[in-house]
């Protein structure tokens, strides 16, 4: 059975950028629902729950046909949110909110011309995602970086890419504080990115 991962910070720790009530509802209600529905969908295939949800998404087309849609939607929702919480952090934890450095910064510059250009391109991907979805920084199979956006709870893992940074642009992620002002929410996101975790994920994906 899949379970809700521990949140690495308190509900109010990302204030004023992400408010406590939104974080509480997002984590304890929305994410929990994806976990519950994924477990329910896999009751007839208990052997699948022994695998990390990320592995299920990577091998989606090999799964039993009767659970593929549920794994794509609910498994994607579980995996996407689980990653999202880890790439957020509070200011007191160090270089949170600053721009990346080291090898990640070099790879971002190669991908997007500069770190500042990356910030603009990622923000645009998030802002221009029609309806619900996510913006991502991913590592492609050739180890280079790419900015992509996906609809609903689709994960880049399905297309063979490894996500290392993401922003949830479903309305439930920001509507209590920002209402319809998605660009303001996106701008706030840059203040709470846990870059050491993103850099760790980049190093792991490019070994």
Quickly describe the structure.
This protein is mainly α and 207 residues long. It has eight helices and three strands.
Task: Outline the fold blueprint.
Elements (H helix, E strand, L loop, with lengths): L19 H22 L11 H6 L6 H22 L15 H11 L2 H14 L4 E7 L5 E7 L10 E7 L6 H4 L3 H8 L5 H11 L2
Antiparallel strand pairs: 1-2, 1-3
Helix pairs in contact: 1-3, 4-5
Please tell me about this protein's structure:
- With 207 residues, the protein is mainly α.
- It has 2 domains: 20-89, Helix Hairpins, CATH 1.10.287.990; 92-205, minor pseudopilin epsh fold (3-Layer(bab) Sandwich).
- The protein is 47% helix and 10% strand.
- The chain contains 8 helices and 3 strands, in the order αααααβββααα.
- Strands 2-1-3 form a 3-stranded antiparallel β-sheet, sandwiched between helices.
- Strand 1 (133-139) and strand 2 (145-151) form a beta hairpin.
- Helix 1 packs antiparallel against helix 3 (65-86).
- It is globular and about 50 Å long.
- The model has no long low-confidence stretch (mean pLDDT 95).
How many DSSP helices?
A: 8
Cα-atom Rg, whole angstroms? Answer: 17 Å
**How many structural domains are formed by the residues?**
2
What is the CATH topology assignment of the largest domain? minor pseudopilin epsh fold
What is the element string, with H for helices and E for strands? HHHHHEEEHHH
Main sheet overview: 3 strands, antiparallel
CATH superfamily of the largest domain: Iron/manganese superoxide dismutase, C-terminal domain
- Poorly predicted residue ranges: none
So what's the CATH class of the largest domain? Alpha Beta
The share of residues in helices is 40-55%
Placed side by side, the strands forming the largest sheet appear as: 2-1-3
DSSP strand (E) fraction? 5-15%
Shape: globular
Question: What is the architecture of the largest domain at the second tier of CATH?
Answer: 3-Layer(bab) Sandwich
Task: Provide the residue-averaged pLDDT.
Answer: 95
The CA-CA distance between the termini, in Å, is 30 Å
Alpha-beta classification: mainly alpha
Q: How many strand segments?
A: 3
């Amino acid at each position: 059975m899949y379970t809700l991962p521990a949140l690495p910070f308190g509900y109010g720790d990302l204030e004023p950028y992400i408010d406590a009530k939104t974080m509480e509802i997002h984590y304890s209600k929305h994410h929990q629902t994806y976990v519950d529905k994924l477990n329910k969908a896999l009751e007839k295939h208990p052997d699948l729950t022994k695998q990390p949800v990320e592995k299920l998404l990577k091998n989606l087309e090999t799964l039993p046909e009767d659970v593929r849609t549920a794994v794509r939607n609910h498994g994607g929702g579980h995996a996407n949110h689980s990653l999202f919480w880890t790439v957020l952090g509070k200011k007191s934890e160090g270089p949170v909110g600053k721009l990346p450095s080291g090898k990640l910064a070099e790879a971002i510059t190669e991908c997007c011309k500069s770190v500042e250009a990356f910030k603009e391109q990622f923000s645009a991907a998030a802002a221009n995602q029609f309806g619900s979805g996510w913006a991502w920084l991913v590592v492609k199979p050739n180890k280079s970086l790419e900015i992509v956006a996906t609809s609903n709870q689709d994960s880049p893992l399905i297309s063979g890419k490894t996500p290392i940074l993401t922003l949830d642009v479903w309305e439930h992620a920001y509507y209590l504080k920002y209402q319809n002002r998605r660009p303001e929410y996106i701008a706030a996101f840059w203040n709470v990115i846990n870059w050491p975790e993103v850099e760790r994920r980049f190093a792991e994906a490019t070994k």
